[in-house]
Design brief:
104 residues, alpha+beta, three-stranded antiparallel β-sheet, 28% helix, 20% strand
Length: 104
């Protein structure tokens, strides 16, 4: 019996917008990596309270609540970087240069 050749199928993956995933705001991202993947931890950094400022004077740390943590395989990183650069280039063409100043 001859081996059947499977035809290559070209397709595009698109987000399923019917799922009910909520949007999450983040204005801080910490990035870590292992040999296999990158972990992107997204936080919402609000202006620090007076207590947080006092504590930070001695500890030099202000904690920000984690809103999402994504683990991305290393193989996706070059495409992710390229997509971010392309989208940011389009943003700059539409809205001007990068915003100035701190987020908070």
């Amino acid at each position: 019996m001859a081996e059947e050749k499977k035809a290559a199928i070209n397709f595009t993956v698109v987000p399923d917008e019917t799922s009910e995933i909520q949007r999450i705001y983040s204005n801080f991202c910490a990035i870590q990596n292992s040999p296999l993947d990158f972990t992107l931890t997204f936080c919402e950094m609000l202006p620090p309270s007076e207590k947080q400022l006092r504590d930070a004077q001695s500890s030099h740390v202000v904690k920000a609540p984690v809103r999402a943590r994504l683990v991305v395989p290393v193989q996706m990183i070059p495409g992710l970087i390229a997509a971010l650069q392309d989208n940011f280039r389009g943003y700059q063409e539409s809205f001007g240069q990068q915003p100035k100043g701190p987020l908070n």
